Amino acid sequence: MKLLATITGVALFVCGVSAQQAVVTSSCNFTVYVQSFPYDGSTPGTLTAVPPGGRFAEDFRETGSTVKISKTRTLSTPLFFGYSFSSSPDYAYCKPKSSYLPLPRFSALTPASFGTIDEFSTEWGNPFADEHNVLTPGEGCELFDCAAGEAACYSTPAAKKVYGCPQPVNLEAELCLED
Prior knowledge:
Shape: globular
Oligomer: single chain
Distance between the termini: 45 Å
Largest sheet: 6 strands, antiparallel
């Protein structure tokens, strides 16, 4: 099984599969602030100001990450999406963010060898609650398509919604979409 995963990872690399990314696209009429925080506690990504019509993107982190999105530089009450990887692509599990553990590092395996597990959460707040927001991993996967004011659409501490998706994927949060 490990050999198959290694061969798959090498084949994806050789075939030129591009890096999988966490993306935030803003259609908001104000600046949005984005920063990623790896689950393994390593150095957070750079705080990025995304102007109206702008985009944030970073390659997936091997151990998974939380990508916080806010209207303020201090990232107060952020909406966030998180992702991690599982060796069972069709298997999704629910754990609160505080209990995510770093995944072991596999020298021969890449995130492309695993399934992605993601959520779009209001656990710390949602400054975009009055906007239409979408988190999508791509065709054939579950997505969050949250209309303005549709609080039940998001993952919360009381009602976890965590989806699994086979890779490769790009997770893209689209903010302030027109209905």
